[in-house]
Write a structure and sequence with these properties.
By secondary structure, the protein is α+β, with helices and mostly antiparallel strands. The protein contains 17 helices and 14 strands. The chain folds into four domains: 138 residues, no CATH class; 161 residues, no CATH class; 75 residues, no CATH class; 96 residues, no CATH class. The termini are far apart.
Length: 494
């Protein structure tokens, strides 16, 4: 008996970011969390002359730009440059430090200081280059210069155009803005870029050149030499295969899981100095093919249509929680079992805790996110939230409380403003009324005011000891009497 099986097409959201290809090919940041690594790329021609050179020196006060500085450059600054109109403006607003933390998906507090330091690391990184690149019109140019890319202006400081900075700004330096305004660009999936740890993210940026070319020219595989990846990432280069394999497995894992890479092969070789090297061959996966189709369509694509390589049975729609569980490597049947056996609130909290841990400094301690998450959900009470963690529900509650507080404060401010305006208007009316009276009319009005005043007030006015204050008290009593008359809109007989 035959059954018709439809091919399922996975539709995933796509946010395109177009990155310049002149400078982004070369490294600026170390990707390891600790230590320093020499950032230098040098290539010689057949005559042993230096054909290409790229070197980055860092400021000893702020340190070498690391993973956080890398995320700032690739996810915040590149995004702002992408969103700017061409030609790119010299002054670009990044947002407040709190906005930057939220956009990077990290908690605030101490990270505010880390963000400032990372901005200074990027701004003070001095680049010495001798490179060739192509402009958008196909012209080849050479950049032989020493430069920093931009300056940082923090909130409250004066901008070059005289304005006061209402957030964090960068001011692009002449050499940098000249290159990126004219250089060719390449498209990347921004949301995918954002989801990756630093080393796999950098790998995606570098492999995308070869992967795009392989698909464009109908090649079976893209290739990247291990030594080139280590130089351009940069990563520590090993010469023992077992260390190379272990290092690259961590880099490949998220791309194999996402379907960007279908298969990895390697071939041992040697570099120009005779040292052990490896050529890595990458078979494009469904996601890479979907990106290529989307990026080569006319107009701006909004989705990736990822078609599996083999026919799959029809599936029932997945909830967002089921997708989250599968995203972390949990098999679909296990994901369904967990959803049927545990509350959505518990699962949601444990997913958020795992995401929080994976984005932190100790992410490497969670070797198997799927096993961690299954254990957390199946435990009686779930794993306790770590220090500093705030759930999405709690964050929304805090945001709602903040908005409510701001709304009440705004309403109170408006009420006070209206009250002050009413008081001014009433005082002006009282003064106008008083000034309209003749001396005799004012005398009679004062007598009426005293007569209607409290006994205590009348005694104070007549008290010889209070003589020097009598005129002040009389004025006050009279004005209050006029105010009451105006409020009651009663005509006064003079």
């Amino acid at each position: 008996m035959e059954s018709n099986v439809d091919i399922i097409t996975e539709v995933a959201p796509l946010t395109t970011i177009r990155v310049e290809t002149a400078l982004s090919r070369f490294p600026v940041h170390r990707l390891a969390r600790k230590g320093n690594i020499k950032i230098e790329v040098t290539e010689s021609n057949s005559r042993k002359d230096t054909a290409l050179q790229w070197k980055v020196s860092y400021n000893s006060e702020y340190g070498q730009p690391g993973p956080l500085a890398y995320k700032l450059d690739t996810l915040i600054i590149n995004r702002r440059i992408e969103e700017a109109n061409r030609p790119i403006p010299r002054i670009i607003r990044l947002g407040s430090l709190h906005d930057i933390c939220r956009e990077l998906g990290i908690s605030e507090g101490k990270n505010i200081v880390s963000i400032k330091n990372a901005l200074h690391q990027n701004a003070s990184a001095y680049i010495t280059s001798k490179i060739h690149y192509k402009t958008a019109d196909g012209t080849e140019r050479m950049l032989e210069a020493g430069f920093t890319r931009y300056s940082v202006i923090l909130t409250g400081e004066k901008l070059p155009d005289g304005r006061k900075a209402d957030g964090v700004y960068i001011v692009l330096n002449d050499t940098f803005i000249s290159v990126i305004n004219g250089a060719m660009t390449r498209p990347l999936d921004y949301e995918y870029l954002k989801s990756l740890p630093p080393a796999p993210q950098r790998f995606y940026e570098l492999l995308s050149y070869q992967m795009y070319a392989a698909l464009k020219y109908d090649r079976l595989r893209a290739k990247l030499t291990y030594s080139d990846f280590c130089a351009h990432a940069p990563q520590t280069r090993h010469f023992d295969w077992e260390k190379v394999r272990s290092q690259m497995n961590k880099v490949h894992r998220p791309h194999l899981k996402s379907g960007y890479i279908a298969k990895v092969d390697s071939q041992q070789t040697t570099d120009s100095d005779g040292k052990p090297d490896w050529i890595m061959f990458y078979q494009p996966g469904p996601k890479a093919r979907a990106e290529f189709r989307a990026f080569t369509k006319r107009g701006l694509p909004t989705v990736l249509q990822i078609e599996p390589s083999e026919p799959l049975p029809l599936l029932t729609p997945q909830s967002h929680l089921e997708r989250d569980l599968i995203r972390h490597g949990i098999a679909p049947p296990t994901a369904k079992e967990l959803l049927n056996s545990h509350s959505e609130e518990k699962i949601q909290l444990q997913v958020e805790i795992l995401d929080w841990r994976l984005s932190g400094k100790k992410a490497d301690k969670i070797e198997d996110p799927a096993a961690y998450l299954v254990g957390a959900i199946r435990s009686e009470t779930g794993y306790a939230p770590p220090k500093g963690f705030v759930s999405k529900a709690e964050n929304e509650r805090r945001q709602e409380a903040k908005r409510d507080k701001e709304r009440k404060a705004s309403e109170e401010s408006q009420r006070k403003q209206r009250e002050a305006e009413r008081e001014r208007a009433e005082s002006n009316s009282v003064a106008a009324y008083r000034n309209s009276l003749t001396l005799d009319e004012l005398t009679r009005l004062q007598a009426d005011a005293i007569a209607q005043a409290s006994e205590e007030t009348r005694k104070a006015i007549d008290d010889p000891m209070m003589h020097k204050f009598r005129n002040t008290m009389l004025t006050k009593v009279t004005e209050e009497h006029i105010r009451q008359l105006l409020r009651n809109r009663q005509p006064t007989e003079i």
